[in-house]
Amino acid sequence: MTTVYSKNNCVQCKMVKRYLEAHDVPFQEINIDEQPEKIAWLKSLGLVSVPVVFYQDDMIVGFNPDRLKALAS
What does the pLDDT look like over 28-71, one tens digit per residue? Predict the structure, then answer.
């Protein structure tokens, strides 16, 4: 399962979710504005911004269409 960490009013987060929806990639969204306890976990990984997409054993930080293509294929 693909998991997208996002927050409200985040343009890149919206772009990632639209890309995944347009390419029929199922995903679970975790909104850190609604679940602030997840922020500490992301920070423990050295991450300081969203969106972050986790899939299999990899992650994509930010809106990166070239990397997102791998999920769509």
Answer: 999 999 999 999 999 999 999 999 999 988 999 999 999 999 88
Per DSSP, the residues of 17-53 read HHHHHHTT--EEEEETTT-THHHHHHHHTT--SS-EE
Residue pair 33/20 in contact (Cβ under 8 Å)? The answer is no
Query: Which residues are CB-neighbours of 25 under 8 A, at least 6 positions away?
Result: 2, 71, 72
Question: What count of other Cβ atoms lies within 10 Å of the Cβ of residue 2?
Answer: 16
Give this prediction's pTM.
0.93
